[in-house]
Amino acid sequence: MKSVLTKYFTVNPIQLIILFIVCYYNCLRPNLFLKVILIAYIILCLNRRLTYLIRLVIMFSTLMTFLIFFQFHQKSIENQKIQNVQHIRLVPDSIQIDGDQLSAQAQYRRYTVLVHSRLKSKTEKIFFQNNKDWLELKIDSKVEEIMTKRNFKGFDYKFYLKNKNIYHSISILSIKSISYSKPKHLIEQFQQWRRMAIIHSFRIFPEPLNQYLAALLFGYLDKSFQLTLDTYSQLGIIHFFALSGMHADFFLKVLKKNITETRYGSGTFVLCYHTIFILFSIFNRFKYFDTKKSSSAKSLTFWS
């Protein structure tokens, strides 16, 4: 009996894996070049008249082209300097409030930047705490150098941000205006939904249960959670908030056992596995753990 994978997708599992990878980065970094690669690869994979060797060469060439392009893209962002930043889009699910300090990730042109600001009133603090949407901010700002490690075996904050594709830090001096913005693609819609779920969990559950749920379900670690990490470690429950290889292996074995015993076969397991992998990769990318110590709608008026 044919599995669902071979019945509905006339491609080999390895071809499907590469297809998933290209699709993921096409959603993460929308680009015309990646779209052309994706369409061409789908057409070639579905063409049964090609021999196995030709398909193998096509798969390898596609993967290498994609990796070279992605590496070149990363280097170009890392080497370019920014200055005089006046307009940014604030990522909703990266917002962190610590007293009167606001920290978040933002989009500036094609860059992802780290922003810090001092909140001037309680109204501003409540607004950002309850915000669920993408925001477009017009600001006066100062570009700052990202702190690197200062001693041997010290924490390299710059390298940590580099792994998150962040190479620039901005200090907001003043906010001139702010307006709502709609998500531009599916990844941004996921980020907005995640922010809505985080705010909802903090509203309906008492402390510290809301912190546990936000950390376990959405990977959101706020400042209050970071302050209690030592307590969780002493109680021996810190491992509940970390995903180890044992947890992943146990989950995959249970999933494989339940699926392969059904009439769908192992092909369905491969499809489910890579779907879960993509979703986990998306939400894992949205996790924001700041270890540093220290079409628009109607504009809001309390920054005027």
UniProtKB/TrEMBL annotation:
Keywords, in A-Z order: Membrane, Transmembrane, Transmembrane helix
Keyword Protease on entry: no
Domain of life: Bacteria
Transmembrane stretches, start-end: 32-50, 56-73, 204-221, 233-252, 264-283
Protein name per UniProt: Competence domain protein
Originating species: Streptococcus urinalis 2285-97
Organism lineage string: Bacteria, Bacillati, Bacillota, Bacilli, Lactobacillales
